[in-house]
Amino acid sequence: MWSVRILTLFPELFPGPLASSITGRALKEAIWEIKAIDVRDYATDKHKTVDDCPYGGGGGMVARPDILGQAIEENFISNQNEIIYLSPRGELFNQGLARELTQRKGINIICGRFEGIDERVINEYRIREVSIGDFVLSSGDVAAYSLLDACVRLLPGVLGNGGSLVQESFGLDHNYEMLLEYPHFTRPQNWRDRQVPEVLLSGNHQLVENWRLEQAKQKTKEQRPDLWNRYLSRKEK
Ligand code: SAH
């Protein structure tokens, strides 16, 4: 079972949306588990304070290293699993990192709120900082939903049809690797005078495959020139 331990100020947010649909079914089937720990349980004063003003001044509040450290030591499974702090200044999360994280027995996550956490905690526990994109959220909890969803659907047995994992955007299929997904169509065949592309009705697998690869290339070229250039340079090797 893939084990998630998550430190947060709002444990009631978990499993949250992850309890529905695909990730929810996997949770019920015990393919993965999640334990959300309230950092406030490790506060030592009667007001349950977990943060304080930053040294050097400036606005916001910073999570205290002593309290966070205690919560980490008592809850994280850290000899095999990485500790991740969700933070906008971390390395960018992507499908490769999701795959890497699912190779382990689980994951430990720290969700920040307010200004962030004391830098010494990051160094003390060799924490890996991960960002889900170049924008600033008000909490790490929302970022954790994305990261966990991306990981859980990769766990063995979670997606019934193995094929759908291989061909989607950023998938593993060698033709489609680094390409965005081709467009999909379903019934009705004619909707508001918009027809489903002929080739998809042809029943000819090879033609369909060729068309999809062409479409995937087109989409990638238009939407993500960065991915397109990487795709081209890989092909040349
Ligand atoms: N002062 C910080 C931002 C704090 S945002 C800075 O400028 O870097 C509050 C919390 O939201 C952070 O502690 C982090 O856990 C989370 N967060 C915000 N944006 C994020 C992102 N893009 N990816 C992952 N976590 C994020």
UniProtKB/TrEMBL annotation:
<dbReference type="GO" id="GO:0052906">
    <property type="term" value="F:tRNA (guanine(37)-N1)-methyltransferase activity"/>
</dbReference>
<dbReference type="Pfam" id="PF01746">
    <property type="entry name" value="tRNA_m1G_MT"/>
</dbReference>
<dbReference type="InterPro" id="IPR029026">
    <property type="entry name" value="tRNA_m1G_MTases_N"/>
</dbReference>
<dbReference type="InterPro" id="IPR029028">
    <property type="entry name" value="Alpha/beta_knot_MTases"/>
</dbReference>
<keyword id="KW-0949">S-adenosyl-L-methionine</keyword>
<feature type="domain" description="tRNA methyltransferase TRMD/TRM10-type">
    <location>
        <begin position="4"/>
        <end position="229"/>
    </location>
</feature>
<feature type="binding site">
    <location>
        <position position="112"/>
    </location>
    <ligand>
        <name>S-adenosyl-L-methionine</name>
    </ligand>
</feature>
<dbReference type="GO" id="GO:0002939">
    <property type="term" value="P:tRNA N1-guanine methylation"/>
</dbReference>
<dbReference type="InterPro" id="IPR023148">
    <property type="entry name" value="tRNA_m1G_MeTrfase_C_sf"/>
</dbReference>
<keyword id="KW-0808">Transferase</keyword>
<comment type="function">
    <text>Specifically methylates guanosine-37 in various tRNAs.</text>
</comment>
<dbReference type="InterPro" id="IPR016009">
    <property type="entry name" value="tRNA_MeTrfase_TRMD/TRM10"/>
</dbReference>
<keyword id="KW-0963">Cytoplasm</keyword>
<protein>
    <recommendedName>
        <fullName>tRNA (guanine-N(1)-)-methyltransferase</fullName>
        <ecNumber>2.1.1.228</ecNumber>
    </recommendedName>
</protein>
<comment type="subunit">
    <text>Homodimer.</text>
</comment>
<feature type="binding site">
    <location>
        <begin position="132"/>
        <end position="137"/>
    </location>
    <ligand>
        <name>S-adenosyl-L-methionine</name>
    </ligand>
</feature>
<dbReference type="GO" id="GO:0005829">
    <property type="term" value="C:cytosol"/>
</dbReference>
<comment type="similarity">
    <text>Belongs to the RNA methyltransferase TrmD family.</text>
</comment>
<keyword id="KW-0489">Methyltransferase</keyword>
<keyword id="KW-0819">tRNA processing</keyword>
<dbReference type="InterPro" id="IPR002649">
    <property type="entry name" value="tRNA_m1G_MeTrfase_TrmD"/>
</dbReference>
